[in-house]
């Protein structure tokens, strides 16, 4: 079973959770077995998958690991782009997603964050301050003009859109790349600063932040 960062996964039992400390009180008040957990970018080993669990409040976030054998369902960010539940989103989110669909982006892309969670679960977690969080799969370095065109498109959408670019090595924030051409790349080994998030020499991992 292959899972990727930002995938939503469902478990068959609470015993799937591996954690050294006690679970926080809010976990038992809010999380239920019929709700998904979100795959995190971290080192995987011994059949354990790093995931995050969200609570009702923004401050309620829990990083744990789960047994891969207990995963019974996976929803990818890309699959949510075609979700019928988009019709139940606030109008500005609907319009933004429709514009992105019509523009036939040259990359695979998906919906993550609060919007993705709401689409996958039907739970109303979006607020008036919520942004539209997206990921773009970009395994190879593209001509910079393609990124310029993407930035122009995002600037004209009816809501604030935060894009994370996913390379074969890790993920980085698109706006940071366009502004600085040097970004914090989050890898499975840890975060590092780089000017080329598509290629990292082994020696660079010695400078993990």
Polypeptide structure, described:
- There is one protein chain.
- The chain is of the alpha+beta class and about 210 residues long.
- The chain has 2 domains: about 10-75; about 80-205, no CATH class.
- About 20% of the residues lie in helices and about 30% in strands.
- The chain has 5 helices and 12 strands.
- The chain has a 6-stranded antiparallel β-sheet, with no helix packed on it.
- The longest helix has 12 residues, at about 90-100.
- It is globular and about 50 Å long.
- The protein starts with 7 loop residues before the first strand and ends in a 15-residue tail after the last strand.
What structural category arises from helix and sheet content? Answer: alpha+beta
Main sheet?
Answer: 6 strands, antiparallel
The number of helical elements comes to 5
Strand line-up of the largest beta sheet: 2-5-4-3-1-6
Task: Describe the structure in brief.
By secondary structure, the protein is α+β, with helices and mostly antiparallel strands. The chain has helices at 25-30, 91-102, 113-121, 144-155, 174-180, and strands at residues 8-11, 17-18, 37-39, 48-54, 61-67, 71-75, 108-112, 132-137, 161-166, 170-173, 183-187, 190-194. β8, α4 (144-155) and β9 form a beta-alpha-beta unit.
């Amino acid at each position: 079973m292959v899972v990727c960062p930002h995938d939503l996964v469902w478990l068959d039992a609470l015993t799937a959770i591996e954690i050294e400390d006690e679970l926080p009180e809010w976990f038992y008040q809010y999380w239920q077995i019929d709700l998904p957990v979100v795959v995190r970018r971290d080192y995987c080993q011994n059949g354990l998958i790093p995931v995050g669990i969200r609570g009702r409040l923004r401050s309620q976030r829990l990083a744990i690991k789960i047994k891969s054998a207990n995963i019974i369902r996976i929803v990818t960010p890309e699959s949510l782009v075609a979700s019928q539940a988009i019709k139940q989103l606030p109008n500005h989110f609907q319009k933004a997603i429709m514009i992105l669909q019509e523009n036939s982006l040259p990359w695979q892309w998906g919906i993550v964050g609060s919007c993705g969670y709401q689409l996958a679960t039907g739970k109303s977690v979006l607020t008036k301050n919520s942004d539209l969080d997206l990921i773009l799969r970009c395994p190879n370095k593209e001509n910079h003009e393609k990124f310029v065109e993407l930035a122009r498109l995002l600037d004209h959408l009816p809501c604030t859109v935060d894009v994370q670019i996913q390379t074969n090595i890790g993920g980085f924030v698109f706006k940071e790349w366009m502004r600085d051409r040097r970004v914090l790349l989050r890898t499975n080994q840890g975060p590092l600063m780089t000017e080329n998030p598509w290629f990292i020499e082994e020696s660079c991992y010695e400078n993990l932040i």
